[in-house]
Write the structure tokens for this entry.
Amino acid sequence: MAQEMVKGAEALLRVFREENVDVFFGYPGGSVIPIYDALYDAEDIHGVLPRHEQGAAHAADGYARVTGKVGVCMATSGPGACNLVTGLATAYMDSIPIVAITGQVKTHLVGTDSFQEADVTGITIPITKHNYLIKDPHEIERFPDILREAFYLAKHGRPGPVLVDVPFDVSAGDVPWAERNIEALDGYEEPPVADSADIDRAADMIEAAERPVLMIGGGVVHSEASEEIIQLAEKTNIHVVHTLMAKGCFPESHELSMGMPGMHGMAYASYAIQHSDLLIVIGARFDDRITGDLERFAPDASVIHIDIDAAEIDKVRPATVGIQADAKAATRELIQAVSAREPGAWEEHLREIKKKHPLRYSDNDELMAPQFVVEKLYEVTGGKAIITTEVGQNQMWAAQYYPLEEPRKWCTSGGLGTMGYGHPAAIGAQVGRPDEIVVDIAGDGSIQMCMQELTTGTVEKLPYKIIILNNSFLGMVRQWQDMFFDKRYSGVDLTGNPDFVKLAEAHGAVGLRCGDRDKVVETLERAMEVDDVPVVVDFAVAKEENVFPMIPAGKSWDELIEAPVSDE
Amino acid sequence: MMMEMERTISVLVKNRPRVLARIAGLFARRGFNIDSLAVSTTEDEAVSRMTVATTADPPTLAQIAKQVSKLHDVVQVIDHTNHKVVERELCLIKVHIDRSERPELISLCDVFRGDIVDIGNGSVMVQLVGDKDKIDAFVHVMQDYEIEEMVRSGKIVLDRGSSK
Ligand SMILES: Cc1ncc(C[n+]2csc(CCOP(=O)(O)OP(=O)(O)O)c2C)c(N)n1
């Protein structure tokens, strides 16, 4: 039987359907016109048109984080593809599954500096899990399978972005269509299974430990292991700290929750780690924002390290027992293997420490504290919103003052720290979960990096909210200059910011302003009432508020700086 | 302190465009050094073999092997540390020499089992095959002459005995 031939663009849409892609974030241009042409008739696949390709990549990322599906973005060759780079790097650092489709110049022009040609596969090697250029005949022949492979790689094992660079003549020309057979794909593998001897050793270590702490990271989100983590913690009465990536994976109201440790984490979370004799680390990678000075990090702790990525085990902190496995599966086994454990003196001690070192900030009538705004946001939304963040102080206050009870309600650029991420991520999140309240907690600096996406929000009728904690500074940089550079505020003054209310209105969104602490709740309530366009709320907050606690970069727990005690 | 020394890994990769760039880029961006590199075809035409010599301590080498293994195009990574191996490099070395010095050079070549592969007016080219130490030693000896040009291949390594 002659093999069925289809247009490359049609093959792409067929694979989209196989993968249940009903929405993608993409920006057209010359080399992807054949794909957009095929999309013209595809009523079941909606293309969201951002106003900048960076927005497309971040939106796909936000969509992926809140839905657990692969996010899809698209861009044309050359400049379009280059504009995806920040978004791909952001997703790569946080292990977010994205498939990026980029157009490329015609195959015979590749390598000749032709119009709008950029070596996008070359550029994105270090920031993708894998990438493909469909150029040689054997690649064109395998086009449908390569696309399937891209989706497969994006979400299997340790997730991450995968890019497929598709020359014009490949999407416009014919390719052989092949039926789907995932197990025959190149790179297909069964997930690694934990060695039962290692699980038993881990269980023994837990039973023998006097001061155990469980640290969970983004891997717990990806493997949907929250339930298992709760069971493990409850069975063993071990307190849980979460990295920035795992926020919401363990309910922050749970009595065993010790919150986030690290540079701007809770003092008691860092304390617990530092004094533990056993760290059970699941799906986390000992980032320097968590460890500070590695030499002095948790000096007495043995380490059980569970990660799907073997390369994370022993990369930073050597593990006593390293287990390469999926977090959910391994945690289940651990729950089976370990005996129940009653809370003891250590647990009691941690409860006291937690009570003794709450988060605190000083607040007075003249200067509205940014933390106060986030607290009120929590109240007004009943703690139920999906939160995206920009980067800087806003991000840390969001992490500190908006506790979460469930996973997949938190989108923040943890690894790369990308200003401009939160707004397009909110678009992706709202598209993915239209019935939820989505709020981008923003700084006045970051929000200007992808401001243009307000139009996208308006056109798509997305009612997400942007809460600007407007301190007229690049606050986090100013804080470092304040604390470590003799207050020499260099390059951080944002005087001259645009009028955010007018800007919102110019984009067809709703703009609100509030500088009065007594009107915060009322203003937020008004924002929540809007249900058809984005809302921007410009909160004028204290200009020189700093984020505490803080463990300065490269320092250790004993150098933690707590918030100055309020003079009230 | 764990020992930092030159160690060799073989990386079997799918024969695909950019695979060398992927591996070299990984070494570069993670700060692993490459002392020598040889890339060749293998018994399987779909697979190429890269032999990479790197100076590293055991944890770093383990990290290198794990990071390299993660690349989609990598089929297998073999760490030859503590393996019994046959290791070879090829060296071509051209020395400026007049006729009167030739006999001495030829006897030196005999000692090292090098071959004279070209004789020109005033120059001789020697080919030498051996492990790194042998070639280092030979190059050292040749420094008594005026070396016009020299080239060494990256080392290639196979484990001794059957691999089945
Ligand atoms: C794209 C990008 N550029 C620069 C930085 C460095 N940076 C980190 S935080 C920060 C200040 C952020 O200011 P703002 O958005 O106003 O937030 P605030 O800290 O005041 O809450 C800067 C410039 C970054 N993280 N990302």
